[in-house]
Backbone:
């Protein structure tokens, strides 16, 4: 049995500053999150330099708030986990520098975490936790993946997107419909008022074998369809509905195929698009045991980073003194935790 420890998790890979304290014995002690969505809304997407600067402004006040909220003296922190990739380089550097420096100041270990491994393990923050092995559908703003998960750092990628990530397709569709940013929740809200039978959207790549995805065509289809309408609120809702139905149907059928091919019976859904209700609803009909993080832990957060960091530290892994980040970092380069710095080059 590993020693009990309290770990601070720091997430700054994109446009959310997330911090959490996780106790290996009693679980999550608390978490705080600041979303920069309003800051980037005028630009219709994340502006990297603005993101980095805002992480700098927000991270330490958020840490103070987290410590006050949990009434934990900072000396009780036994380790610091920070996201070291993949993500925006400047944003990552803020969290990595702060995490590494805090660990040094407190005289404790630091551990560098892969953002997608954080998402992948997020369902384990819930009372009903999946056991290994399981199939994971990772659907975020930057990734769309089907992964066989046999243990921490034991990942086999079964399928990926060949172009846009599914969250990205939601965001771009929102933009072309004149909806706000981030687009996923906006498209979902519109879709709820849309009619299912008005437009028929294609189901990309379902006619081909394999488990890869392609979503950029759907976004173009949405644009072409919308341009042929009068542009009323009902038109927007109907396009949003047809788009969401096509995405959900495509994802669900590929998940069904992956479950069948892998023989796995447990399904984990993680990443921001995992918060989508229609998707959750549909995936529940596939006959697998489905596990989801609570919606706030589907999108970026510090808790998943604390948890993934804890598992890696318990496996003996820790970060060296150098501050390294990897904006691009394929998930299948990860290995099980080893008592050397293996997560960053
Ligand atoms: O995991 P995440 O917070 O950040 C990345 O690592 O990318 O995912 C953000 C993505 C955005 O594209 C956002 O539009 C999408 O998740 N998203 C949704 C929903 N909530 C967030 N997409 C569809 N339906 C939602 N309810
Ligand atoms: Zn993410």
Residues:
């Amino acid at each position: 049995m590993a020693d009990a420890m309290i770990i601070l998790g720091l997430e700054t890979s994109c446009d959310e500053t997330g911090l959490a304290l996780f106790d290996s014995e009693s679980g999550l002690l608390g978490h705080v999150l600041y979303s920069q969505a309003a800051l980037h809304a005028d630009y219709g997407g994340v502006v990297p330099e603005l993101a980095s600067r805002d992480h700098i402004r927000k991270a330490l006040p958020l840490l103070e708030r987290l410590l006050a909220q949990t009434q934990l003296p900072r000396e009780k922190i036994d380790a610091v986990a920070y996201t070291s990739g993949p993500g925006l380089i400047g944003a990552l550097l803020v969290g990595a520098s702060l995490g590494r420096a805090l660990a040094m100041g407190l005289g404790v270990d630091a551990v560098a975490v892969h953002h997608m491994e954080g998402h992948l393990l997020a369902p384990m923050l819930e009372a009903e936790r999946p056991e290994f092995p399981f199939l994971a559908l990772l659907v975020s703003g930057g990734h769309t993946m089907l992964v066989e998960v046999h243990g921490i750092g034991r990942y086999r990628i079964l399928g990926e997107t060949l172009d846009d990530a599914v969250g990205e397709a939601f965001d771009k569709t929102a933009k072309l419909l004149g909806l706000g940013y981030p687009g996923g929740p906006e498209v979902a809200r519109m879709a709820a008022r849309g009619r299912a039978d008005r437009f028929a959207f294609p189901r990309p790549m379902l006619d081909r074998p394999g488990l890869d995805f392609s979503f950029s065509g759907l976004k173009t289809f949405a644009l072409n369809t919308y341009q042929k309408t009068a542009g009323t609120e009902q038109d927007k809702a109907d396009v949003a509905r047809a788009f969401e139905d096509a995405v959900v149907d495509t994802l669900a059928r590929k998940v069904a195929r992956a479950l069948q091919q892998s023989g796995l019976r447990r399904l984990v859904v993680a990443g921001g698009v995992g918060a989508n209700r229609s998707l959750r609803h549909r995936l529940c009909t596939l006959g697998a045991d489905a596990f989801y993080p609570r919606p706030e832990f589907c999108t970026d957060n510090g808790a998943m980073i604390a948890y993934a960091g804890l598992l890696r530290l318990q496996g003996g892994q820790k970060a060296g003194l150098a501050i390294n980040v990897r904006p691009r970092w394929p998930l299948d380069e990860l290995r099980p935790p080893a008592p050397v710095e293996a997560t960053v080059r």
Notes: The radius of gyration is 20 Å. The beta strands are 6-11, 16-23, 27-35, 79-85, 109-114, 134-139, 144-151, 154-160, 266-270, 289-291. The mean pLDDT is 96. The longest strand covers residues 27-35.
